[in-house]
């Protein structure tokens, strides 16, 4: 008897069919079964936010979900942000504003900010600080992360290129 379950994930617009144990987290399935290791694992219990991905457009901590719970859902990871050689405005802003040092927390911050800004492109400063405060960074002191997201918000509002739009295909 097997306790494996067939799960279909739509990740960054591509269909991934995997077979996982019921206890496997979405984070582990993304990394181990789908080969997308850009999603990082830090605390593995919902505190740091390094594992943040978008689930049907909403930022979620993928270490707190089982892969089976994501069956049939649309997931976006950091690998889906850039369009070819063109970085997403958030990625460009993090580069331009020194929003990362070691980079371990960065995929989580990028996906958190991406979901938040797509839902609310004109988000105010106070709300932006509140949203970003859910993830942890051990390097940057947060100022440059906030500066990066602030700059990306402006770029995303002004940018009509495909890299700035939500994942549609
Ligand atoms: S690894 Fe998921 S919140 Fe820390
Ligand atoms: S850049 Fe190192 S943990 Fe954030």
Report on this structure.
- With 169 residues, the protein is of the alpha+beta class.
- The chain folds into 2 domains: 4-80, Beta-grasp domain (Ubiquitin-like (UB roll)), CATH 3.10.20; 89-164, DNA polymerase, domain 1 (Orthogonal Bundle), CATH 1.10.150.
- The protein has 5 helices and 5 strands, in the order ββαβββαααα.
- A hairpin with a 2-residue loop joins β1 (4-11) and β2.
- α2 (89-96) crosses α5.
- The longest helix has 16 residues, at 143-158.
- Mean pLDDT is 94; it is low at 162-169.
- The structure holds FE2/S2 (inorganic) cluster (2 copies).
Residue share in helices?
25-40%
Structural class: alpha+beta
Q: What's the N-to-C terminus distance?
A: 38 Å
Shape: globular
Characteristic key phrases:
169 residues; alpha+beta; Ubiquitin-like (UB roll); DNA polymerase, domain 1; 2 domains; 5-stranded mixed beta sheet; 5 helices; 32% helix; disordered C terminus; binds FE2/S2 (inorganic) cluster
Task: Indicate the topology.
Blueprint: E1 4-11, E2 14-21, H1 26-33, E3 52-55, E4 58-61, E5 74-76, H2 89-96, H3 106-119, H4 125-132, H5 143-158
Parallel strand pairs: 1-5
Antiparallel strand pairs: 1-2, 3-4, 3-5
The protein binds FE2/S2 (inorganic) cluster (2 copies).
State the gist of this model:
The protein is built from 5 helices and 5 strands.
